[in-house]
Predict the 3D structure of the following.
Amino acid sequence: MSDRVGHVPVRANRVRDGLAVALMMLALLLPWNLQFGLGVPGSRGALFAVLAVVPLLAVGAAVLPHVRPPTEIRRVCRVRLLLAGPYMLLAIAFVGYHLAQTVQHGGTGAVPPGVGPGLLLGVAGALLAAQPPITSITIEDNAFRRWYAVARVLGFLSIALATLSVAFNLYWRLRYLFVTDGTFGGRDVGVVLTTALYGAEALIALVIASRWLSEKTAAARLATTAVGSAGAVAATLTWIAGVGRDIDAFHGIAQNTSTAAIGYEGYLAWAAVAGIVAPTTLYAVFLIKPPTIGAYRGAAQKCLTLIAFWAFASATLRVVDYLVALSLDLPRALYDSVAMTVFNLVTAVIALWLHRNLTNSTVAAAFGAVLVVFSVANVAIGVALAPRYAGPAPDAIYGNNLAQQITSTFDVTISVLSLIVLAVMLFTGPLAGYLHSRRVSAKPPTAAPAPAEPPTVIQPVPQAPTVPRIVRRREDPTTVMEAPPTTVLENPTTALRIQRRPSNPK
């Protein structure tokens, strides 16, 4: 990469770095896992001291190019990476601690620490601050190529971790079948069936979204930005809202259990890759005038695919849960199961219809609004119709009095994602013409040309005919030249003379 700076889009860099600082400051106010964070009892003071220093370094990485304009782009890139590096190392340490606790206490009923919304937002902000400034040199020389490679690695790593997560959960929940001497009965069949289906649903949903992280198209990177933002917003809302404990037993802390939908390996990877690919992707897309509608609609179709799958899978699992409860003569509510299944099926049908009819902008925008309503309604009726124990909820920051955990943070993620899809359909459909007309009307009006005067008819004046005259050219004067002087020879020549034959007489 060249040392030159080149053209610097000031607004793009300010928005990117300002968002990075805001995310890292907000991360300080949210829990990083079940054992540490603001408002989490028993948090260690030493970690708070570390958390007070490390974000300041990352904030310095984001502010540096704006306080001191760069003269050498290479040096600025190195300094930003070095200042934001400790923040990312701290995040890796939290993830490693979660993995160690999960393996150590797996199958014992102990809840692993997980990854909270503070870590999701903080990692995204640190990666925004660590990237090179957006300049003409960094774009032309493709200085972000290595960052895109890191994003693809995170996508494959999230799929691998999710596969291991589901495999561990299957083993822990079914291990009793191999260590006991009891007979294999109907209850065991129900446990095996529900464990396998819930794990498959979570794994397939994560694979659908994590595959976008490895693709190189603008639509895939826009979809990654959308799902990463939706996951971080959903985790934050679930933690802050009072109803969050009923939505997720872990009160917004993403876990890696198969019955709690998507685990940390999905949320954290999505948020991290969104922080990597969002700035340059959005800058390149917004740079095109008029905008490339195909990239937006391609991203919306990817998000609709994930929404449709999750809705169909949720409806299938609700039917399976009811049939298992019926076969084992367990408490069940037919009306509640039917109502939640119908809402899931309607959501899935609307998502599929929108996936195939995005070109019909006005009608698609209307159905997009209906999709948002049904997505939010799925969360609402999941909380309202969930069976509960008679006792109150526990006092810890996780747990509730639900007899069965039906909804999760990922259902809130789907709701936020459907809202993002609606915004895309509006700005590429009905609002596109309105915004274009606003831009045209904002331009200063050009002076109208003066109206042309009517042509004037001129009558020709008759003239008398003229007789042609013969014009003779003047004769050139004749100049008489004097004869040259004759030279008289003193001695006549004696040389041969030319004699002419006399002519014959006739």
